[in-house]
């Protein structure tokens, strides 16, 4: 049997009755370290060139990152050359630390220091794996042997750094595979490294705790981090960093819980590129803070540029549902979502606290347009259809007509199976409601009040017809213009015409048509709606009635012809 869960074992949980992290809140951004140019780079099919690294570095600086792991200079000439270029061309701002990784081997450490000659601020980052799998199968060492690798390397780092005093050095140590390491042993190794580096005597030290492979639920990782936080010596002089991967899809969650558990610093990559399923995504982690009203200290308003550059350099497309950055993450297709968004957006005003349903952040904050928010397909409802007409064409419809139009659009969407653009909704609105049936254009109207024997009644003379045809004259009487026209139509087409719904809107002064009328009539038991726009409200109302009745007439002519 190949699919056999019995070949796996769970990661042991920590019995930690004194855990405090669950009730902590994150109230400020951690220190961020971007490792795109190292961990991200080592996962690419085609690793970055020096030119690509330059562009990426430049963007990371512009976004606000202060610690940037720029490569593994002892492993590749490109990474070495890139370090040299950064230093020799003075491309690193004074407040930015460049960071480089090396294995815990002397020749590699020596080469690493060579690559950093002349740097103002640099982080030398050494690692060795500490978990049982690595001790037993990769390095063939016991706990003491494993600790000795780290301690020896810490000594070399101290020694080589002393030879380059022009640089302000930070030393960083990662017990690689920390999350799969017995936590008491991780603490022992960290203490041994710190005993060499002496953070308590002023050396800046970062202890980075990696979930090299994510092997547990984030709460277990948080327990591990809190244990280190509580137990290591010189805690107050050490920066605790975490470096999570996303093997179980919880890289960001693990880092967040780790910060609650005491971590000061978080390593990750933009959009989560990295080994296997990737590193923790800095965009998601930063924007999660932002959405809670916390300044992430990184300028994510440049989201489009971030996505474009990362995609170009990594040759990896961003998932359309990628948090905060994907193409579809601010779009709602489903009716009830659209309805709620539309109602909330209508109330939202610049300066308000953002409480728009279904949108955790304001899309505009990351350079997205409100036009993307409501999109129509067969899952949409009247709110969405009304929203796109209102948003893109300034057409406001009464509720009863929104419902009717939504039904029509829904049929189109179901037939086609895809998205219906707002232009298509508009075309459908025009053809089904706004267009005037042949022969039913209002040409002129003349209304005379008090003209008849009944005081206050309106006598209407209305001419209709297309410009190419002779006009038809209609004459009727009623309480107002509309009822006079209904009277005229009842006389002429000998049918029972009734107006069942009527709404009118002013379209503002800037349009040729100043008024819009929406009408629903019944003609001999057939219900028909129509809309008309005209320069005045009376003309719009009269035309809407004519269009509705004309449609019913045209349909019955077609039906009679078919029967004959
Ligand atoms: C989780 C991480 O992301 S760790 C970073 C991983 N990144 C990379 O590996 C990218 C760059 N690496 C490289 O280009 C190469 O591995 C180099 C240049 C660093 C080393 O190359 P090589 O000397 O050819 O060794 P190789 O790559 O096979 O590494 C395995 C050897 O390094 C040892 N090793 C592995 N990691 C470490 C470490 N952190 N500290 C000390 N020794 C180590 C192994 O035990 C093994 O030793 P052995 O040959 O005596 O059995
Ligand atoms: C070297 C370390 C920090 C690493 O990338 C990992 O463990 O994932
Ligand atoms: Mg990593």
From TrEMBL:
<dbReference type="GO" id="GO:0005737">
    <property type="term" value="C:cytoplasm"/>
</dbReference>
<dbReference type="Pfam" id="PF08502">
    <property type="entry name" value="LeuA_dimer"/>
</dbReference>
<dbReference type="InterPro" id="IPR036230">
    <property type="entry name" value="LeuA_allosteric_dom_sf"/>
</dbReference>
<dbReference type="InterPro" id="IPR005668">
    <property type="entry name" value="IPM_Synthase"/>
</dbReference>
<dbReference type="InterPro" id="IPR000891">
    <property type="entry name" value="PYR_CT"/>
</dbReference>
<protein>
    <recommendedName>
        <fullName>2-isopropylmalate synthase</fullName>
        <ecNumber>2.3.3.13</ecNumber>
    </recommendedName>
</protein>
<comment type="similarity">
    <text>Belongs to the alpha-IPM synthase/homocitrate synthase family. LeuA type 2 subfamily.</text>
</comment>
<keyword id="KW-0479">Metal-binding</keyword>
<keyword id="KW-0012">Acyltransferase</keyword>
<dbReference type="GO" id="GO:0003852">
    <property type="term" value="F:2-isopropylmalate synthase activity"/>
</dbReference>
<dbReference type="InterPro" id="IPR039371">
    <property type="entry name" value="LeuA_N_DRE-TIM"/>
</dbReference>
<feature type="binding site">
    <location>
        <position position="245"/>
    </location>
    <ligand>
        <name>Mg(2+)</name>
    </ligand>
</feature>
<dbReference type="GO" id="GO:0009098">
    <property type="term" value="P:L-leucine biosynthetic process"/>
</dbReference>
<keyword id="KW-0460">Magnesium</keyword>
<comment type="function">
    <text>Catalyzes the condensation of the acetyl group of acetyl-CoA with 3-methyl-2-oxobutanoate (2-ketoisovalerate) to form 3-carboxy-3-hydroxy-4-methylpentanoate (2-isopropylmalate).</text>
</comment>
<feature type="binding site">
    <location>
        <position position="243"/>
    </location>
    <ligand>
        <name>Mg(2+)</name>
    </ligand>
</feature>
<feature type="region of interest" description="Regulatory domain">
    <location>
        <begin position="436"/>
        <end position="564"/>
    </location>
</feature>
<feature type="binding site">
    <location>
        <position position="279"/>
    </location>
    <ligand>
        <name>Mg(2+)</name>
    </ligand>
</feature>
<keyword id="KW-0100">Branched-chain amino acid biosynthesis</keyword>
<comment type="subunit">
    <text>Homodimer.</text>
</comment>
<dbReference type="Pfam" id="PF22615">
    <property type="entry name" value="IPMS_D2"/>
</dbReference>
<dbReference type="GO" id="GO:0003985">
    <property type="term" value="F:acetyl-CoA C-acetyltransferase activity"/>
</dbReference>
<dbReference type="GO" id="GO:0000287">
    <property type="term" value="F:magnesium ion binding"/>
</dbReference>
<feature type="domain" description="Pyruvate carboxyltransferase">
    <location>
        <begin position="30"/>
        <end position="304"/>
    </location>
</feature>
<feature type="binding site">
    <location>
        <position position="39"/>
    </location>
    <ligand>
        <name>Mg(2+)</name>
    </ligand>
</feature>
<dbReference type="InterPro" id="IPR054692">
    <property type="entry name" value="LeuA-like_post-cat"/>
</dbReference>
<dbReference type="InterPro" id="IPR013785">
    <property type="entry name" value="Aldolase_TIM"/>
</dbReference>
<keyword id="KW-0028">Amino-acid biosynthesis</keyword>
<dbReference type="Pfam" id="PF00682">
    <property type="entry name" value="HMGL-like"/>
</dbReference>
<comment type="pathway">
    <text>Amino-acid biosynthesis; L-leucine biosynthesis; L-leucine from 3-methyl-2-oxobutanoate: step 1/4.</text>
</comment>
<keyword id="KW-0808">Transferase</keyword>
<dbReference type="InterPro" id="IPR002034">
    <property type="entry name" value="AIPM/Hcit_synth_CS"/>
</dbReference>
<keyword id="KW-0432">Leucine biosynthesis</keyword>
<keyword id="KW-0963">Cytoplasm</keyword>
<dbReference type="InterPro" id="IPR013709">
    <property type="entry name" value="2-isopropylmalate_synth_dimer"/>
</dbReference>
């Amino acid at each position: 049997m190949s699919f056999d869960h019995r070949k796996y074992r769970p990661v042991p949980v920590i019995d930690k009755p004194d855990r405090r992290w669950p009730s902590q809140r994150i109230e400020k951004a951690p220190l961020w370290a971007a490792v795109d140019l190292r961990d991200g780079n080592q996962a690419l099919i085609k690793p970055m060139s020096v030119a690509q690294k330059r562009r990426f570095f430049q963007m990371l600086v512009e976004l606000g990152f202060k610690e940037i792991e720029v490569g593994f200079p002892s492993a590749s000439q490109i990474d070495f050359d890139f370090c040299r270029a950064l230093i020799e061309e003075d491309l690193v701002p004074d407040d930015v630390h460049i960071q480089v990784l090396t294995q815990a081997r002397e020749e590699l450490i020596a080469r690493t220091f060579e690559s950093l000659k002349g740097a103002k601020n640099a982080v030398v980052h050494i690692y060795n794996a500490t978990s049982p799998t690595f001790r037993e199968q990769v390095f063939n060492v016991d706990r003491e042997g494993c600790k000795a690798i780290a301690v020896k390397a810490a000594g070399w780092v101290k020694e080589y750094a002393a030879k380059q005093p022009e640089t302000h050095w930070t030393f960083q140590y990662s017990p690689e595979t920390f999350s799969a390491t017995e936590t008491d042993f991780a603490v022992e190794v960290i203490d041994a490294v710190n005993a060499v580096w002496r953070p308590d005597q002023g050396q800046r030290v970062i202890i980075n705790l990696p979930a090299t492979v994510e092997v547990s639920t984030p709460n277990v990782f948080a327990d591990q981090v809190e244990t280190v936080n509580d137990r290591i010596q010189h805690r107050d002089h050490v920066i605790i960093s975490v470096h999570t991967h996303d093997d179980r899809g919880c890289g960001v969650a693990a880092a967040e819980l780790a910060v609650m558990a005491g971590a000061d610093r978080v390593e990750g990559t933009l959009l989560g590129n990295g080994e296997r399923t990737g590193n923790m995504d800095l965009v998601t982690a930063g924007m999660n803070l932002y959405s809670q009203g916390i300044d992430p200290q990184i300028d994510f308003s440049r989201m489009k540029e971030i996505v474009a550059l990362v995609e170009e350099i990594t040759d990896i497309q961003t998932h359309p549902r990628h948090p905060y950055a994907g193409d579809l993450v601010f779009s709602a297709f489903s009716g009830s979502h659209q309805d709620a968004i539309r109602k909330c957006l209508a109330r939202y005003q610049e300066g308000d606290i953002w409480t728009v349903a279904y949108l955790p952040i304001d899309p505009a904050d990351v350079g997205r347009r409100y036009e993307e928010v409501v999109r129509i397909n067969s899952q949409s409802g009247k709110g969405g259809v009304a929203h796109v007409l209102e948003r893109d064409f300034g057409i406001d419809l009464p509720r009863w007509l929104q419902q009717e139009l939504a039904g029509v659009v829904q049929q189109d969407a179901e037939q086609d199976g895809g998205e219906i653009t707002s232009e298509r909704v508009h075309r459908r609105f025009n053809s089904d409601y706004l267009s005037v049936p042949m022969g039913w254009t209002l040409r002129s109207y003349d209304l005379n009040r008090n003209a008849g024997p009944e005081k206050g009644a309106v006598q209407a003379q209305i001419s209709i017809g297309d410009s190419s045809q002779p006009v038809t004259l209609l004459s009727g009487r009623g309480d107002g213009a509309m009822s006079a026209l209904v009277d005229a139509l009842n006389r002429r087409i000998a049918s029972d015409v009734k107006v069942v719904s009527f709404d009118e809107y002013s379209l503002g002064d800037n349009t040729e048509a100043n008024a819009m009328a929406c009408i629903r009539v019944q003609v001999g038991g057939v219900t028909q709606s129509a809309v008309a726009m005209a320069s005045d409200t009376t003309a719009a109302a009269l035309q809407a009635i004519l269009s509705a009745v004309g449609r019913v007439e045209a349909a019955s002519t077609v039906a009679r012809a078919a029967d004959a």
